[in-house]
Amino acid sequence: MSVKTGVPPIGGTTAPALRVDGVTVRYGDVLALDRASLEVAPGRVCGIIGVNGSGKSTLFKAVMGLVHPDAGSVLIAGDTPAAARRAGAVGYVPQSEAVDWDFPLSVRDVVMTGRYGRMGFTRRPKAADREAVERALARVELSDYADRQIGRLSGGQRKRAFVARGLAQGATVLLLDEPFAGVDKRSEATITRLLRELAAEGRTILVSTHDLHALPGLADEAILLMRRVLVHGAPSEVLTPEHLSLAFGLDVLSGGEDE
Ligand SMILES: Nc1ncnc2c1ncn2[C@@H]1O[C@H](COP(=O)(O)OP(=O)(O)OP(=O)(O)O)[C@@H](O)[C@H]1O
Description:
The protein has helices at 56-64, 81-86, 107-112, 116-119, 127-139, 155-169, 185-200, 215-218, 235-238, 241-248, and strands at residues 18-27, 30-40, 45-49, 71-76, 90-93, 173-177, 204-208, 221-226, 228-233. By secondary structure, the protein is an alpha/beta fold. The strands form two sheets. The protein has a six-stranded mixed β-sheet with strand order 5-6-7-3-8-9. Strands 2-1-4 form a three-stranded antiparallel β-sheet. The N and C termini lie far apart (42 Å). It binds adenosine-5'-triphosphate. Adenosine-5'-triphosphate is lined by residues 27, 30, 32, 50, 52-58. Residues 27, 30, 32, 50, 52-58 line the site of adenosine-5'-triphosphate. This is Manganese transport system ATP-binding protein MntB.
């Protein structure tokens, strides 16, 4: 089956946008994911929470096809991660620390990298590539910053630039790793609004976050990960004191602790 590059209809009755079935990933002796299973439907924002080392990044890597599960399977709109990646169906917004912000690329250049998969080895953009990039920049309200070196953006603008890269790529599933870390409240609100709009169009958004307070305003559903999926449900069902003390070992919602 080929990957559809269009955005699936909201509430479609076809395959889930993302299906992770019994995925186990080991790095040598370390068990990073232990039979993790989840499904997320098109048009949903799903928050992934869990302590450091609970397997959030590994889950994203498995969805992107960057790690191969020792057991289990991942399907993106019914396709394997490798096929989905070739079609640009999965967009990734990395943690800030994972990016070299001094690299001499403009915001537009970064968004254009989302089109590389379609360009062939010469990487010479065609009119359709340029149009897709300008549309994506406008969508995240960064058109006025397109010529700026990527490191000269604020934390929130940098995140939006990478969301634009995913949009230029035609991604129907977007994975965001800690998008609110180092981002001020106003930018957080802008990103939240943008993600809600993209979900309303039928995209599927997975957000790993330590920001439990922001979760109910952002996500339709939440997953508590501890190598396996401990709970998956509405944020109010997941963010209970019992679940949080099980996962984090302390009362993270009431005391303003550092999680
Ligand atoms: N390349 C690797 N080699 C060996 N162990 C790894 C590797 N990557 C991750 N791990 C280990 O696998 C486990 C899960 O790591 P992972 O990065 O998926 O967790 P995480 O929930 O994303 O953590 P954080 O919130 O700190 O980003 C951890 O114990 C980690 O030390």
